[in-house]
UniProtKB/TrEMBL annotation:
GO terms for cellular component: cytoplasm. This is Citrate synthase. It comes from Brachybacterium faecium (strain ATCC 43885 / DSM 4810 / JCM 11609 / LMG 19847 / NBRC 14762 / NCIMB 9860 / 6-10). GO terms for biological process: tricarboxylic acid cycle. Pathway: Carbohydrate metabolism; tricarboxylic acid cycle; isocitrate from oxaloacetate: step 1/2. The lineage of its organism: Bacteria, Bacillati, Actinomycetota, Actinomycetes, Micrococcales. Belongs to the citrate synthase family. The active site is at H270, D327. InterPro entries: Citrate_synth-like_lrg_a-sub, Citrate_synth-like_sm_a-sub, Citrate_synthase, Citrate_synthase_AS, Citrate_synthase_bac-typ, Citrate_synthase_sf, Citrate_synthase_typ-I.
Length: 393
């Protein structure tokens, strides 16, 4: 069937034509639908960015109000979800709980599973945007052994999420606009990143015409890996270990450079950015603001800054063009707000959801889409005859 191109990790293979996100890794540029990430992080909201990614244009006030109202009125989960979540072991990872929950949506919303019916897809997308934060909060509360709360739809999606997660009196977080704004900004920064591993998983599963919920649950599975979304938690674990072991940051960096036990400086390096990740710059600023506002002093922030300082001057990192990525400082902010480390990747999933939806819809509408089906280079045995059990050694 002709020669195939061997390209592990799809380093040079484009699987899609896409008009959603533009990245210039050499220049450190990221744009959603043409808008620079810096402007969106400063001026926009999570749901406005979701609208932009999915529909291609910024909404008018009327369009946004309507979209937000549709999402915010659907935050409630069917009671049976509580039993589903309650049935998992308390120490189960919240990403696994989230993935199972999203997968379960296909059983509750059988009226909106047709990938080719635009209205059904629209309502599925709204349901996902509304319910993922509620599921995320429940995954957290169950792990803590705390009662599940009902959404309060007088609150915005993000305020609701914070309240459902922490159970604090509404005023405490809602009044704290710095925290709410920081959450919005972090979600915006994660909202899309073209053909990353989880987005490619969403497209691949969707290319088999699986429904949107099932495709998104595949994305959540991919995101849970430590080389992808799991990196934000891995950064925190790394900082904790260095601190707990009383290790000198320089000694740790020497171990990284010697590739001892395969350790890497987590939160550093990127397949596409070979210059500073533009998201990391914004995250650093948010970290400063949130820690100051909450009056949190976290030595891990200083440790992270020290590691970055060493890396930026070290030949190993400079030659390989390794810079902090989006995950390097996010964990410190999440910790300051009160999230345990296991929840970090769940927050990334909420952030990435609009991008997954937009990319899935683009894939479904693209007449050039084919079922994802890579080739291989076979390295196994040539034909051989079946060996009877009695003759095997
Ligand atoms: N620490 C130490 N060395 C590194 C690191 C690191 N974080 N990242 C790459 N290298 C080295 C690697 O060992 C290799 O060196 P050599 O040429 O001597 O073999 C060289 O740099 C190229 O690395 P690679 O693994 O071929 O690069 P890649 O494009 O396949 O990997 C990456 C990209 C993000 C998986 C990798 O940089 C990494 O493992 N980073 C740490 C994990 C992390 O922070 N991931 C989050 C990525 S951003 C958010 C997301 O996508 O979810």
């Amino acid at each position: 069937t002709g020669a195939v191109t061997y390209d592990p990790g799809f380093m040079n293979t484009a699987n899609a034509k896409s008009s959603i996100t533009y990245i210039d890794g050499d220049e450190g540029i990221l744009r959603y639908r043409g808008y620079p990430i810096e402007q969106l992080a400063e001026k926009s909201s999570y749901l406005e960015v979701a609208y932009l990614l999915i529909n291609g244009e910024l909404p008018t006030k009327g369009q946004l109000d309507n979209f937000v109202a549709q999402v915010e009125r659907r935050t409630l989960l069917d009671e049976r979800f509580k039993r589903l979540f309650d049935g998992f072991p308390r120490d189960g990872h919240p990403m696994a709980v989230l993935q199972a929950g999203v997968s379960g949506l296909s059983t509750f919303y059988q009226d909106s599973l047709d990938p080719f019916d635009e209205e059904q897809v629209r309502i599925s997308a709204v349901r996902l945007l509304a319910k993922l934060p509620t599921m995320a909060a429940y995954a957290h509360r169950i792990a803590q052994g705390h009662a599940l709360l009902y959404p309060d739809n007088r609150l915005s999606l993000i305020e609701n999420f914070l309240r459902l997660t922490f159970g604090f009196p509404v005023e405490e977080y809602v009044a704290d606009s710095v925290v709410v704004r920081a959450m919005e900004q972090l979600l915006i920064l994660h909202a899309d990143h073209e053909q990353n591993c989880s987005t490619s998983a969403v497209r691949l599963v969707g290319s088999a015409q699986a429904n949107l919920f099932t495709s998104i649950s595949a994305g959540i599975g991919a995101l849970s890996g430590p080389a992808h979304g799991g990196a934000n938690a891995a950064v925190m674990e790394m900082l904790d270990q260095i601190q707990a072991g009383g290790m000198d940051p320089r000694d740790f960096m020497e171990k990284v450079k010697r590739k001892e036990d395969g350790i890497r400086l987590m939160g550093f390096g990127h397949r596409v950015y070979k210059n500073y990740d533009p998201r990391a710059r914004i995250v650093k600023k948010i970290a400063d603001d949130v820690l100051e506002r909450l009056g949190v002093h976290d030595e891990r922030l200083e440790l992270a800054m020290k590691l970055e300082e060493i890396a930026l001057k070290d030949d190993y990192f400079v030659e390989r063009r390794l810079y902090p990525n989006v995950d390097f400082y996010t964990g410190i902010i999440y910790k300051a707000i009160g999230f345990p480390t296991e929840m970090f990747t769940v927050l990334f999933a909420i952030g990435r959801l609009p991008g997954w939806i937009a990319q899935w819809e683009e894939m479904i509408h693209d007449p050039e889409t084919k079922i994802g089906r890579p080739r291989q280079i076979y390295t196994g045995h040539a034909e051989r005859a079946y060996t009877e059990m009695s003759e095997r050694t």
